[in-house]
Amino acid sequence: MKAILIIYFMINISLYAVGLEKPANIREMTGTTDARIMIGWDTVSDADGYYIYQIVDGNRVKIGETMNGSSYTYEITSLTPYTDYTYCVKAYSSSIGESGCSTPITIKTLHTWHGDLKNCLLNKLGQSDDYTPDRQDVEGIDTFYCPNVNVNYWDGSKANIDELRDLVYIRDLNVSGGIYTPFPSWIGELNLLYSLKLNGKFGGELPEDIGDKLPHLIYLSIEGERNTHAALPLHGSLPSSIGGMIDLKFLSILGDFNGSIPEAFANLGQLETLNLHANQLSGDAGVLSELSTLQYLNLGDNNFTSVPDLSHMSSLKTLILSGIPLKTFPLWLKKMTSLEKLNLEQCNIQGIIPKWIGDLVNLESLKLQGNKLFGNVPVTILNLTQIPNFRGQLDLYTNCDLYADNQDVKDFIQEKSCYEIEDQFFLCQSENTHADYDRLINSNTHKCDLGFSAIRMFLLD
């Protein structure tokens, strides 16, 4: 009896040893779309065909077979977009039997592209409207530009921002327009990006790890819903991880963000442009004193209580501090002779215009609207007349207690405060007289915007 069992066991070992090998090198073939996957494998000697299995919850479910041993591909259709599917393959022979199942492979289908994003994609690919993009199409794109797009997370008939998730090798992504959707939490998956511009009506919060996931960014521009009464404003704190984007040169974040500027922003040693306009940021913005490479800085219309001394920023050309309650002209401004554009509108500045304003010899634009300035406009402001580009950029509106007793200063203010705006007059709404109006329309000035300033200060003899 023992001899019979031993012989039986040896026969089974022998049969297993000469059985079919498992199919090797199972792989995704070209042509994967939102509803289709093609898999392939290496052929197996002596196989009559192959069985294809889908693995669902750990169980193998046979979904098809090939009847030819030399066939090594299989197409699966009618799949769900952006879904993981796992497969394995067995070889079979009528004389030998079945092999074991191959090493499983998991493949994700693409999103279904539609609406404006699909139009941009097909235009990029040079394809017609009836073309269905596959994985090779989207993974071959490194630059994607789609302006004026209509995206709505809640309306399936319009494009969905998640479709961009297929662009795994993208390096430059620029999408803007009517984008009503939560900010994509998955954006860090596109980790080859060096330029990212997503400007629309994004809501929600920025991912806290966005700086860790996108370390190569040089350009970052994000614009979301700013209205605090909106259903889904872009809000929360600025992620401190942005401070890890050490190659960043351009940073613009517009939304309804609150809290202070993270200390980690001091690490942005290559930053040239920083635009944080019209958020709800607070504190003293002291961390920005470390950013000596800035050329453009816009902190306007936030809730900052003060602004640090920025005079060491020798490269700064544009400084916008509108809406910050400075109350006085910061003395460090007199050292910033590199400035070309200075905006101190609505800063609750009370007092006279300092004489040193004329020492900012590179100014092309000076905006002081909406303060409480009074007294004589200093003659030193005439220094700005030596600047070829200084034209139509002097804004003293609403400062109705200013006056000028120097005729040259009067002439300069009249000339530089007037510029073309469509085909109508925008006049001071405080203490204007019909004589002032007649004097203005009979002058050589064709169109003029004087806001709320007192025209009498420079138009009357």
Provide structural commentary:
The protein has 461 residues and is of the alpha/beta class. The protein has a domain of 107 residues: Immunoglobulins (Immunoglobulin-like, Sandwich), CATH 2.60.40.10. The chain is 13% helix and 27% strand. It has seven helices and 26 strands. It has an eleven-stranded parallel β-sheet, covered by helices on one side. Strands 3, 4, 6, 7 and 8 form a five-stranded antiparallel β-sheet that branches. Strand 1 and strand 2 form a beta hairpin. The longest helix has 16 residues. It is elongated. It starts with a helix and ends with a helix. The N terminus and C terminus are likely disordered.
Features:
Immunoglobulin-like; 27% strand; 5-stranded antiparallel beta sheet; elongated; disordered C terminus; 7 helices; disordered N terminus; 461 residues; single chain; 11-stranded parallel beta sheet; alpha/beta
Give average pLDDT, whole number. 84
CATH topology of the domain at 2-108: Immunoglobulin-like
CATH architecture of the domain at 2-108: Sandwich
Q: List the strand order in the largest sheet.
A: 9-10-11-12-14-16-18-20-21-23-25
Task: Describe the oligomeric state of these chains in a short phrase.
Answer: single chain
Radius of gyration: 34 Å
CATH class of the domain at 2-108: Mainly Beta
The CATH homologous superfamily of the domain at 2-108 is termed Immunoglobulins
Shape annotation? elongated
Low-confidence stretches: 1-17, 418-461
Blueprint of the fold:
Elements: H1 2-17, E1 27-28, E2 37-40, E3 49-56, E4 59-66, E5 73-76, E6 84-93, E7 97-98, E8 105-108, H2 115-125, H3 135-139, E9 143-152, E10 172-182, E11 195-203, H4 210-213, E12 219-224, E13 235-237, E14 250-254, E15 256-259, E16 273-275, E17 280-283, E18 296-298, E19 303-304, E20 318-320, E21 341-343, E22 350-351, E23 365-367, E24 372-376, E25 394-395, E26 401-403, H5 407-416, H6 434-441, H7 456-459
Parallel strand pairs: 9-10, 10-11, 11-12, 12-14, 13-15, 14-16, 15-17, 16-18, 17-19, 18-20, 20-21, 21-23, 22-24, 23-25, 24-26
Antiparallel strand pairs: 1-2, 2-5, 3-4, 3-6, 6-7, 6-8
